[in-house]
Predict the 3D structure of the following.
Amino acid sequence: DNSDISTIANQKFDQFFFKNHKFSRNVKGTINSLEKISREDLKQFHKKIFNTNSLYIGVAGDISEKEIKKYLSMVFGNLPLSKSTKFQKFTNLPNGKKIEKIETPQSSVVFGHPGISRNHKDYFSFRIANYVLGGGGFQSRLYKEIREKKGLVYSIYSYPMSYKHDGVMIG
């Protein structure tokens, strides 16, 4: 990862843009951080995350409601009831730019902007706007302007990261 300019740029961006939010952390961890995870940590995490309040199940097929409830109870009936996990909102996202100079023949640029949650009334309009901006591959404005017309990049795109309670736009 330390030789991949795109990975380095994304890690630096996450640290800058998300500051004290959990998203600022390296999701892969390190050997040191993995060695610190105990069996008890995993059991507590499992208990906190895998519970009836966070379980969503979709069922389709030739099965009655009574029959599926029986099977679901057999498989998931012992899961504990737990409080819903709170999502930490994205607050105080920075403006401006941060430049990291690294000795490499390539460049990588990452940008971010506050977005909206999946529950927002304009969520689907937001998705369409992203498709036009950078989510539509070869048809997006970013691709046509920055790659095709100006020839400045090999790859350019944007995508929304919309969650239940908040979101951001990344590119």
About this structure: The mean pLDDT is 89. The beta strands are 112-114, 159-162, 167-170. The two ends are 19 Å apart (CA to CA). The first strand starts at residue 112 and ends at 114.
